Structure formats: C-alpha cells, structure tokens
Amino acid sequence: MVIEISDRNFEQEVLKSKLPAVVDFWAPWCGPCRMIAPLTEKLSTEYKGKLKFCKLNVDENPQMAKKYQVMSIPLLLFFKNGQVVGQSLGALPEQMIRPKVEALL
Fold first, then answer.
1. What's the rounded Cα separation, in Å, for the pair 57 and 37?
2. Which of 32, 55, 77, 95 lies at a CB distance of 3.0 to 4.6 Å from 24, suitable for a disulfide?
3. Cα(3)–Cα(1) distance, rounded to whole angstroms?
4. pLDDT, average across residues 2-6
5. Which run of H or of E encompasses 29?
6. Residue 40: per-residue pLDDT
7. Which run of H or of E encompasses 31?
8. Separation CA 44–CA 58 (nearest Å)
9. Of the candidates 58, 63, 53, which has an alpha carbon nearest to the alpha carbon of residue 74?
10. CA atoms of 87 and 101, how far apart (whole Å)
11. pLDDT tens-place string over residues 35-51
C-alpha cells in the first residue's frame, strides 16, 4: 500500500522511518505520474514490511518538492536512514526501477 504523505508528516514518515522508503513526487495532472502509480502499488505490496512506499503531491506540498529540488515529475527518491541514496526520473519501466528498489534492502 502506497501512503499519501505531506510536508507536515514527511520527516516522521520518511526521514525517521525504520524502513527504507521510496517517495513518489507526483501531481494529478501529470500523465507519466499516473503511468507509474500501478508499479509503485505493485512493488509496495511485494515489499510489504521491508520497504515503505509513499507519494507526495508536489502541488499541495511545495516545501518538500523545493527541499529536494524536484524540477520534473514523476520523480522517485530512494531513502535509507533518512538520506537520499538514489533516484529515478520519469515513467521508467519496472526493469529499470526494480534494481534501485532492491538496492535499498
């Protein structure tokens, strides 16, 4: 299950998370964002209990988008121990995203 997060709970849900986290920076008007959503849902089910998957609407939460210099979406940021350890920009296929997800384990 992908958790919707905001500027207010980003620190608690991602930076202080005991599990590594994947954050999907997206917006409702973004076509490629809608294309990647089923993949993050699938991976969140597959890695349940090992990884946390979150999504952050950049229109409603400009603070974190600015902090992480999000210029284009969809952008997946991979967090481990509160640090960004990788990223994936655009609606990439599963075979390009999966290795980055695996690297968090």
1. 12
2. 55
3. 6
4. 97
5. none
6. 96
7. helix 31-46
8. 20
9. 58
10. 10
11. 999 999 999 999 999 99
Query: Residue 23 carries which side chain, given as an amino acid letter?
Result: V
Amino acid at 19: L
Whether residue 54 lies in the annotated active site: no
Q: For residue 95, which amino acid is it?
A: Q
- How far is 17 from 10, CA to CA, in rounded Å? 10
Instruction: Tell me what the pLDDT averaged over the chain comes to.
Output: 97
CB of 24 within 8 A of CB of 54? yes
On the CB side of 49, CA atoms within 13 Å amount to 1
- 86: Cα separation from own chain's centroid: 11
At which residue do the structure tokens 């620190």 appear? 11
Q: Annotated catalytic residue: which of 5, 22, 23, 30? A: 30
Give me the catalytic one of 5, 33, 39, 75. 33
**Strand bridging mode 21-26 / 83-89:** unpaired
**For residue 74, what are its two tokens?**
């969809």
